[in-house]
Design a protein that fits this description.
By secondary structure, the protein is of the alpha+beta class. The protein contains 7 helices and 8 strands. It is 31% helix and 17% strand. The strands form 3 sheets. Strands 5-6-7-8 form a 4-stranded antiparallel β-sheet.
């Protein structure tokens, strides 16, 4: 199968979330509320996206929109139907939002903020910066990376690869094909400074190495005790098949 065909298949509705599954989950929630007589909030969210061939990449673990952007849908008391904030928001906002909906104080030092005002139809505060982080391993080096979104701009920077920063205007260039880091140096500099505020790359490298050591211990334990995984969910074979492409 040619690369272009693979991209076409993975981008087609046939390879999307199983038809009707999202609606079935929503209906199950509605049935529960009706049966229990309780009120509740429905939140549809994902931990990451997946690139389907954009930039020659498949899967997650990049800062491009295909991987970094996620669905985030709320329904419940205080949420106006069709309210769609224009500014970037974060998965870290889910906790503070649910706390405000429940009428309780969120835990201290939250990285996110409540989206309830925006979900009710109010405008989001302008100029908010949203961050994402990732640790890239390349040629035996650990390269902590950060992505910052503010308004229409996205900056991607890696500690140790500063000369390779990427700057995109995601409003004019949603496919992220034009790196403006050199042609818009002032914008790139401001966003880079904001992205690196409070960032501790060396501490992140140390923590990453520590977690890898812990993971190796768990792997060795699993091989030694032969963990029974008979009750683990097995991916059906048909889920691994790509749809046929008509000639």
């Amino acid at each position: 199968m040619q690369y272009e065909q693979i991209v076409h298949v993975l981008s087609s509705p046939a390879s999307a979330f199983p038809n009707g599954a999202d609606a079935a989950v929503r209906q199950a929630w509605a049935d529960y509320l009706q049966a229990s007589g309780r009120d509740g909030v429905f939140v549809y969210v994902s931990d990451h996206g997946d690139t389907c061939g954009e930039h020659g990449i498949f899967g997650k673990q990049t800062f491009y929109e295909g991987s970094a952007a996620i669905p985030l849908v709320f329904e419940g008391p205080g949420v106006r139907a069709g309210a769609t904030p224009d500014d970037p928001v974060s998965i870290m906002d889910v906790g503070p939002t649910l706390c405000e909906m429940a009428g309780v104080e969120p835990p201290p030092a939250q990285d996110g903020r409540s989206l309830l005002p925006a979900l009710g139809g109010d405008a989001c505060p302008a100029g908010r910066a949203v961050l994402s982080e990732w640790m890239q391993e390349h040629d035996g080096r650990l390269l902590p990376g950060r992505m910052l979104r503010r308004d229409r701009w996205k900056l991607i920077t890696f500690d140790g690869l500063e000369g390779a920063d990427l700057l995109f205007d995601v409003q004019e260039d949603p496919d992220e094909l034009s790196n403006l880091a050199e042609t818009r140096p002032g914008t790139a500099s401001r966003l880079r400074e904001a992205a690196r505020e409070g960032w501790e790359p060396e501490r992140l490298r140390a923590r990453h190495a520590e977690k890898k050591a812990h993971f190796r211990i768990i792997q060795e334990w699993g091989r030694s005790v032969e963990v029974d995984e008979s009750e683990a969910w097995q991916v059906p074979a048909e889920f691994c098949d790509l749809p046929e492409i008509a000639e």
